[in-house]
Amino acid sequence: MTGLSRRGRAYRFLTLTSSPESPSDFQRSWRRLVMRLRRRNMLREYIKVVETTEGGLVHAHVLATGDYIAQWQLSKLWAAIHNAPVVDIRGAAGASRRHQRRDSRRQLARYVAKYMSKDPKSRLAYSRYWAWPRLAGTWREWLRACRSRRIPFQLTLSFWTRCAQAGIPPDSHPFAHWLLAHEWERVPSWAHLGPD
């Protein structure tokens, strides 16, 4: 998660709920909330996991960057938009020095992964600049370039993963030019997908 690799950011955990009276289009309500928070400079980037409860109500777990948002203020906004005043907001790594020592970026990634793995139907979404502009387009271009040079897919994916973890688009990475210029007949032993 490259949004976590940027230092000096204040991270917040948000949980947004629904009520039986809430509109059925959760995503539309979310977009309206994002618009209002961005106008007030309270939200910059986010990564969001949407889940459905056993009762059929939708709720979202969000890891966001931005300025301080009071719980009452978020509750009031969400109630006006989605008719559900129950929200939770907490500081995370980067919110203060004490939190920065206690919560590492890895713990934040685990938080998001925990909610992604709980429900196979949960959906992950992120803001445009959580990683870098045109993340999906960059992946397609990188894959096309590697295929045209017959670079093995495992090596292509391994290098992409490392770039994504570092928050660097592959075409900006100094190693990319060497990788694309080299003739590959087999996957080298150092091109693995596991952790370092």
Q: Total domains, how many?
A: 2
Topology as H/E string? EHEEHEHHEHHH
Proportion of strand residues: 15-25%
Task: Note poorly predicted spans.
Answer: 98-103, 192-196
- The CATH architecture category of the largest domain equals 2-Layer Sandwich
Q: What separation lies between the terminal Cα atoms?
A: 16 Å
CATH topology name of the largest domain, in short, is: Alpha-Beta Plaits
Mean pLDDT: 77
Radius of gyration: 20 Å
Read across the widest sheet, the strand sequence of neighbours is 4-1-3-2-5
CATH class of the largest domain: Alpha Beta
**Which structural category do the helix and sheet elements fall into?**
alpha+beta
- Number of H- or I-type helical stretches: 7
Approximate shape: elongated
Q: Give a quick account of the main beta sheet: strands, pairing sense, barrel closure.
A: 5 strands, antiparallel
Helix percentage range: 40-55%
Number of strands: 5
